[in-house]
Design brief:
The structure holds two protein chains of two kinds.
Chain A: H1 19-46, E1 57-59, E2 70-74, E3 79-84, E4 87-92, E5 103-105, E6 110-112, E7 119-120, E8 126-128, E9 137-142, E10 148-156
Antiparallel strand pairs in A: 1-10, 2-3, 3-4, 4-9, 5-6, 6-7, 7-8, 9-10
Chain B: H1 5-13, H2 16-21, H3 30-38, E1 49-51, H4 57-60, H5 63-82, H6 89-101, H7 106-134, H8 142-164, H9 169-182, H10 189-197, H11 204-235, H12 246-250, E2 252-254
Antiparallel strand pairs in B: 1-2
Helix pairs in contact in B: 5-7, 6-7, 7-8, 8-9, 8-11
């Protein structure tokens, strides 16, 4: 071994791994292990385990409060509740481009985003603009009390209406 | 009793207290002038000698120095703003308004912080253009250019994290848009956004995270890289001078007057 000083006795049975080599490898190995552990610890620490965010399931009230052919934006829930001829449905009002809140423009019968000009039909289909995807339809049902409930964390296939 | 100011300074430099602080003594030789720089913990990052030509405005337009000055203003005004600002959802916007309308000199300090932040971003770009078009990024200064790019990113991140803190509509939607850009990262996008905001929305956790980044982590990172940036100027042979310019190579002078 190049690092072995003269006069030192080589005791290892395998001369390819000297004592110094062994300790260097052990040291680097433990440092590597510690680095991986630190990264895992850091990732876990930075991911909150409890979030004090509002529930994704929201009660949107009685179906009667939505007139036929109306589009209602709930600013807090950030969803549209739409009462069409086919029935009720709910759209996520957050633009699929960069997350701005869209708005219903009755004069042009369009859902429009103020940030970068994306436009969607009342059914969430993209008409123009940078948005990559249509506005997602959200799971909606009627509770036992007769209220419209929307689960904002649950996308469904378009054109599934709730009839009351 | 009629001693001049310079005589008084000389007298001061000979006192025991002065000598205990500044070990370089009170000589006026070139060696002493070099020692003044070399033996000072702050100045020793800098070159002991610079070309006289490089101290002129036309050599650098002072863009790096001006950038550092805006950073200094931002640190001082930022620390003062921290004394009235709580990084929490119910208070942040009200505190910002208090700073603007209630706190003495609050409006001045906040505006100074804001305008200096804009100026710093502009100056960083101007500095980089100047370095680029003069060719000062070329070897042996290529690594300092890399440090400069890191400092550009730190500056932009400081600017971005500070954007959220007033907690008004502009701040909220700008950070919503910005964090959604981060989620466009392939595979890890959504996770990156989640870690950045500490949740799924721009909310209390995001405000606190951006506050800590803005007031603690990023300024320390900036200081760390600024120190390397300045030290590299010395290590890479001083500021870049065009060697076709004869007076550039001829004259040298002490970087600082004798202490």
């Amino acid at each position: 071994m190049a690092e072995e000083k003269k006069g030192r006795i080589q005791t290892s049975a395998n001369p390819a791994v000297g004592r110094r080599d062994f300790f260097v490898k052990m040291g680097l190995g433990s440092l590597g292990l510690a680095a991986v552990g630190t990264a895992a610890f850091g990732y876990q620490f930075l991911s909150p385990n409890v979030l004090y965010e509002p529930s994704p399931v929201v009660n949107m009230g009685k179906p009667d409060s939505y007139p036929l052919d109306s589009v209602t934006l709930d600013l807090d829930a950030r969803i549209f509740v739409i009462h069409s001829q086919e029935g009720f449905f709910s759209l996520n009002a957050v633009c699929t481009h960069l997350g701005c809140l869209t708005a219903w423009k009755p004069e042009i019968q369009t859902i429009a985003c103020p940030c970068h000009g994306s436009k969607f039909t009342r059914e969430g289909v993209k008409k123009e603009g940078p948005a990559p995807k249509p506005l997602p339809w959200l799971r909606m049902w009627v509770s036992d009390a007769g209220d419209l409930i929307v689960d904002r964390a649950n996308d469904i296939r378009p054109m599934e209406f709730v009839r009351v | 009793m009629s001693i001049s100011f310079n005589e008084y300074l000389d007298e001061l430099r000979r006192t025991r207290v002065w000598r205990s602080i500044f070990r370089s003594g009170s000589d006026n030789s070139a060696l002493h002038n070099s020692l003044v720089i070399q033996q000072n913990v702050f100045l020793h990052l800098l070159s002991t000698k610079v070309r006289k030509r490089m101290l002129e405005f036309s050599a650098t337009w002072y863009l790096g120095t001006l950038t550092l000055s805006t950073f200094g203003i931002l640190v001082i005004t930022g620390i003062l703003l921290m004394l009235y600002y709580h990084p929490s959802v119910p208070e942040a916007y009200a505190d910002t308004k208090d700073l603007q309308f209630v706190v003495s000199s609050g409006q001045f300090l906040r505006n100074l912080h804001r305008w200096s932040a804009h100026a710093m971003v502009i100056l960083v770009f101007a500095h980089m253009f100047r370095v680029f078009y003069r060719g000062a990024y070329r070897p042996p200064r290529e690594f300092n250019w890399v440090i400069g790019v890191v400092l550009l990113l730190v500056t932009l991140l400081l600017s971005y994290t500070g954007y959220l803190l007033p907690w008004d509509q502009l701040a909220f939607w700008a950070i919503t848009v910005g964090s959604n850009i981060a989620s466009a990262v392939p595979v890890f996008g959504a996770k990156v956004r989640f870690l950045m905001l500490g949740g799924h929305f721009v909310n209390a956790n995001a405000l606190l995270r951006f506050y800590v980044l803005h007031c603690m982590i990023l300024p320390l990172a900036a200081l760390f890289f600024i120190a390397i940036h300045f030290w590299r100027i010395r290590k890479d042979g001083g500021l870049y001078a065009r060697h076709s310019d004869p007076e550039v190579v001829m004259t040298t002078s002490p970087a600082r007057p004798a202490l």
